[in-house]
Design goal:
It comes from Pseudomonas indica. It is a single chain. By secondary structure, the protein is mainly α. It has helices spanning 5-15, 21-27, 32-50, 59-64, 66-94, 97-115. The longest helix has 29 residues, at 66-94. The chain is elongated and about 70 Å long.
Length: 118
Protein backbone atom coordinates (compact mmCIF):
# COMPACT_ATOMS: atom_id res chain seq x y z
CA UNK A 1 0.00 0.00 0.00
CA UNK A 2 1.45 3.43 -0.90
CA UNK A 3 2.60 5.77 1.82
CA UNK A 4 0.46 8.79 2.75
CA UNK A 5 0.02 11.17 -0.16
CA UNK A 6 0.56 14.54 1.56
CA UNK A 7 4.38 14.34 1.75
CA UNK A 8 4.40 13.07 -1.81
CA UNK A 9 2.41 16.06 -3.03
CA UNK A 10 4.76 18.49 -1.30
CA UNK A 11 7.85 16.86 -2.73
CA UNK A 12 6.38 16.64 -6.22
CA UNK A 13 5.73 20.37 -6.13
CA UNK A 14 9.41 20.96 -5.35
CA UNK A 15 10.59 18.78 -8.20
CA UNK A 16 9.23 20.99 -10.93
CA UNK A 17 10.43 19.68 -14.26
CA UNK A 18 13.62 18.04 -13.03
CA UNK A 19 12.24 14.55 -12.58
CA UNK A 20 9.00 12.96 -13.72
CA UNK A 21 6.35 11.89 -11.23
CA UNK A 22 6.86 8.35 -12.45
CA UNK A 23 10.62 8.35 -11.80
CA UNK A 24 10.22 10.05 -8.44
CA UNK A 25 7.65 7.53 -7.25
CA UNK A 26 9.84 4.63 -8.30
CA UNK A 27 12.85 6.18 -6.53
CA UNK A 28 10.74 6.48 -3.37
CA UNK A 29 9.87 2.79 -3.48
CA UNK A 30 6.35 2.96 -4.83
CA UNK A 31 5.30 -0.06 -6.89
CA UNK A 32 5.61 0.21 -10.67
CA UNK A 33 1.84 -0.25 -11.11
CA UNK A 34 1.10 2.68 -8.77
CA UNK A 35 3.64 4.90 -10.55
CA UNK A 36 2.21 3.97 -13.96
CA UNK A 37 -1.31 4.75 -12.77
CA UNK A 38 -0.17 8.01 -11.20
CA UNK A 39 1.45 9.15 -14.42
CA UNK A 40 -1.61 8.32 -16.52
CA UNK A 41 -4.05 9.77 -13.98
CA UNK A 42 -2.18 13.05 -13.62
CA UNK A 43 -2.14 13.69 -17.34
CA UNK A 44 -5.84 12.86 -17.51
CA UNK A 45 -6.68 15.13 -14.58
CA UNK A 46 -4.95 18.08 -16.23
CA UNK A 47 -6.60 17.28 -19.54
CA UNK A 48 -10.02 17.22 -17.89
CA UNK A 49 -9.58 20.88 -16.93
CA UNK A 50 -7.51 22.24 -19.79
CA UNK A 51 -9.09 20.26 -22.62
CA UNK A 52 -5.66 19.84 -24.19
CA UNK A 53 -3.92 16.55 -24.68
CA UNK A 54 -5.08 13.02 -24.37
CA UNK A 55 -7.02 11.22 -21.67
CA UNK A 56 -4.93 8.23 -20.57
CA UNK A 57 -6.29 5.23 -18.73
CA UNK A 58 -5.40 1.62 -19.34
CA UNK A 59 -8.91 0.36 -18.59
CA UNK A 60 -8.15 -3.39 -18.56
CA UNK A 61 -5.24 -2.77 -16.20
CA UNK A 62 -7.32 -0.35 -14.11
CA UNK A 63 -9.96 -3.04 -13.63
CA UNK A 64 -7.56 -5.86 -12.71
CA UNK A 65 -4.73 -4.03 -10.88
CA UNK A 66 -5.72 -2.24 -7.66
CA UNK A 67 -2.36 -0.42 -7.39
CA UNK A 68 -2.66 1.02 -10.89
CA UNK A 69 -6.26 2.05 -10.13
CA UNK A 70 -5.25 3.68 -6.84
CA UNK A 71 -2.36 5.57 -8.43
CA UNK A 72 -4.59 6.70 -11.29
CA UNK A 73 -7.34 7.91 -8.98
CA UNK A 74 -4.97 9.69 -6.58
CA UNK A 75 -3.22 11.52 -9.40
CA UNK A 76 -6.37 12.35 -11.35
CA UNK A 77 -7.92 14.15 -8.38
CA UNK A 78 -4.68 15.86 -7.36
CA UNK A 79 -3.72 17.09 -10.82
CA UNK A 80 -7.28 18.09 -11.71
CA UNK A 81 -7.47 20.19 -8.54
CA UNK A 82 -4.07 21.76 -9.24
CA UNK A 83 -5.07 22.61 -12.82
CA UNK A 84 -8.37 24.13 -11.66
CA UNK A 85 -6.54 26.24 -9.08
CA UNK A 86 -4.01 27.44 -11.67
CA UNK A 87 -6.82 28.30 -14.08
CA UNK A 88 -8.62 30.28 -11.36
CA UNK A 89 -5.43 32.13 -10.38
CA UNK A 90 -4.85 33.09 -14.00
CA UNK A 91 -8.41 34.35 -14.33
CA UNK A 92 -8.20 36.40 -11.14
CA UNK A 93 -4.85 37.88 -12.13
CA UNK A 94 -6.26 39.00 -15.46
CA UNK A 95 -9.23 40.79 -13.97
CA UNK A 96 -8.67 44.49 -14.13
CA UNK A 97 -10.01 47.36 -12.11
CA UNK A 98 -12.02 48.29 -15.17
CA UNK A 99 -13.81 44.92 -15.05
CA UNK A 100 -14.54 45.39 -11.39
CA UNK A 101 -15.79 48.96 -11.95
CA UNK A 102 -18.11 47.74 -14.72
CA UNK A 103 -19.51 45.01 -12.49
CA UNK A 104 -20.09 47.57 -9.72
CA UNK A 105 -21.90 49.80 -12.22
CA UNK A 106 -24.11 46.87 -13.28
CA UNK A 107 -24.94 45.99 -9.67
CA UNK A 108 -25.87 49.60 -8.93
CA UNK A 109 -27.99 49.88 -12.08
CA UNK A 110 -29.80 46.67 -11.17
CA UNK A 111 -30.42 47.88 -7.60
CA UNK A 112 -31.75 51.18 -8.90
CA UNK A 113 -34.04 49.38 -11.35
CA UNK A 114 -35.47 47.27 -8.52
CA UNK A 115 -36.03 50.19 -6.18
CA UNK A 116 -37.17 52.65 -8.85
CA UNK A 117 -34.55 55.20 -7.77
CA UNK A 118 -32.27 57.04 -10.14
Amino acid sequence: MPRPLFPLIALLALLGGCQSYHDYLLAQGYPLAYADGFQDGCGSGKQAVEGIGRFRKDVPRYLRDPLYAEGWGDAFRQCQTEAEAAERRTYLEQRSERDEAWEEHERNAFAHALTGRR
